[in-house]
Amino acid sequence: MKRLLPLLGLLASAAALSAEGNTQPTAPAPFPYFVANCFNCHGTEGRVNSAIPAIAGRDKAYLEETLKAYKAGTKQATIMNQLAKGYTDEEIVVLADYFSRQK
């Protein structure tokens, strides 16, 4: 037991030092794979220079409401009705959150 105490102290010190020395920035959290489906038309960050609307920075509630309306068929569009049907309500919330946070 007496040999174990110094070892535990050494391990605790090493852990504390490694936690203090870790100053590298953490990588941004990856976005869910299905967000990339929007990139083809709306651009990689929700901005595009075309007739397709930019969705970057739009209000989260607006994006969520609009996607759910496309999914339900109560809002008409050329392709969005079909695309929105492929997402669960939870995925729609994630999409709305992601694009609302883009600048």
TrEMBL record:
GO molecular function, one term: electron transfer activity
Annotated InterPro entries: Cyt_c-like_dom, Cyt_c-like_dom_sf, Cytochrome_c_Oxidase_Subunit
Residue intervals of the Cytochrome c domain: 25-103
Signal peptide: 1-18
Keyword list, A-Z: Electron transport, Heme, Iron, Metal-binding, Signal, Transport
Key word Electron transport present: yes
Keyword Iron among UniProt keywords: yes
Name of the featured protein: C-type cytochrome
Originating species: Candidatus Dechloromonas phosphorivorans
Classification lineage: Bacteria, Pseudomonadati, Pseudomonadota, Betaproteobacteria, Rhodocyclales
